[in-house]
Amino acid sequence: GHKRMKNVLKAWIASHTNLVYWQGLDSLCAPFVYLNFNNEALAYASLSAFIPKYLNNFFLKDNSLIINEYLAVFSHLIAFHHPDLSNRLETIGFIPDLYAIPWFLTVFAHVFPLNKIFHLWDMLLLGGSSFPLCIGVAILTQLKALLLKADFNECILLFSELPEIDIERCVRDSIDIFASTPRSCTYREHASDLTNYQINNDLV
Questions:
Q1: What is the pTM of this model?
Q2: Which of 43, 104, 109, 168 is the most exposed place for a label (fewest CB within 10 A)?
């Protein structure tokens, strides 16, 4: 398995010369290798299609502009859906830079086990490039009661060992957040053009 993943990653890096390996790319690759264990070419093709849609330019050598914009939009989304939580986290200085970068850089593959990732990504693939942001807000929704009472150090501890997240609820909440968020709230200058997907009304 490790050799197959290494082959897929080497092929991806070799064919995307403007991009570089960032820590977490192996976590992002793992679901595709697992699902296409005997077909490295398909695993590579899946990874190559996934990254431009959800992680456009995240793997540039200098990705600071892209990451900063993404986290700024995430902060706006938290404030839009949970102003009390946003205010609390801002007051204690617990900003998304401290916990959310591994979430978004790996589209949560670094956070959740594979069985949960498959369930989450099944829904993700129906949504636009902003859907990972909605998943992030959905995770905070589940942790909200704890976070509102926590100080800075307790927040750091909480996110270093993330409590059990109900993935079914996370998916449902993500859909609701996606559906109730004005598009202007999730606009990103650095987003891919491959973003104009809407979740089917049957799912909302």
A1: 0.90
A2: 168
- Confidence (pLDDT) at 22: 87
pLDDT at 200: 42
Nearest C-alpha neighbor of 165 from the set 128, 199, 140: 140
C-alpha 14/C-alpha 93 separation (Å) is 40
Distance linking the first and last C-alpha atoms of the chain? 37
Indicate the burial class of 18 (C-beta count within 10 angstroms; 0-12, 13-18, 19 or more): exposed
Q: Based on the structure, what is the number of domains in the chain? A: 2
Whether residues 103 and 29 share a domain: the answer is no
* Six-digit token string for 57: 């330019």
Phi first, then psi, for residue 19 (nearest 5°) are -115, 160
The greatest distance separating any two alpha carbons of the chain, rounded to the nearest whole angstrom, comes to 50
CATH number reported for the structural domain that contains residue 151 in this entry: 1.10.472.80
Indicate left, alpha or beta for 93 from its phi (over 0: left) and psi (-120 to 50: alpha): left
pLDDT, position 169: 97
Q: In the predicted model, what is the mean pLDDT of the chain?
A: 91
